[in-house]
Design goal:
This protein has about 130 residues and is α+β, with helices and mostly antiparallel strands. About 30% of the residues lie in helices and about 20% in strands. The chain has one domain (about 1-120): 3-Layer(aba) Sandwich (Cytidine Deaminase, domain 2), CATH 3.40.140. It has helices at about 1-15, 55-65, 85-95, 120, and strands spanning about 25-30, 35-40, 70-75, 105-110, 115-120. The protein is globular, with a radius of gyration of 14 Å. The chain starts with a helix and ends in an 8-residue tail after the last helix. The structure holds zinc ion.
């Protein structure tokens, strides 16, 4: 399953709009519903307006009416092995995660196999509105 998510992230990374950084990223998210949503990064001439692949995929899920939580998110970049989500995306993933122990972050390891992390491994003290 993780290999399949990584493969889809790999495919969607080819659609990245990144004329400035040339840094392609793709994300594929599996929700509890079994549905998958994908996203790539979309840059802008005004750099700060650029959108990451992960948030693009989560926005797509919301726009498509997804109401369940994130089981796993695979992130891939041909430019960098183990391409971790940025801080903003970690906070976004936490917003839609089952919890920080069950939601998995899937990266491509050095030997091209999936590296599986828990959300808590990369985002142990996220902001929560309580
Ligand atoms: Zn990001």
């Amino acid at each position: 399953m993780y290999q399949e998510l990584l493969q889809k992230a790999k495919e969607i990374s080819k659609n990245a709009y990144c004329p400035y950084s040339k840094f392609q990223v793709g994300a594929c998210i599996l929700y509890e519903s079994g549905k998958k949503y994908e996203g790539c990064n979309v840059e802008n001439a005004s750099y700060g307006l650029s959108l990451c692949a992960e948030r693009n995929a989560m926005s797509s899920a919301v726009a498509n009416g997804e109401k369940t939580k994130i089981k796993a998110i695979a992130i891939y970049s041909p430019n960098q092995k183990k391409c971790l989500p940025c801080g903003a995306c970690r906070q976004w993933i936490a917003e839609f995660a089952i919890n920080d122990k069950e939601t998995k972050i899937i990266l491509e390891d050095d030997n091209s196999t999936p590296l599986v992390l828990n959300l808590e491994d990369i985002f142990p003290y996220g902001f929560k509105f309580e």
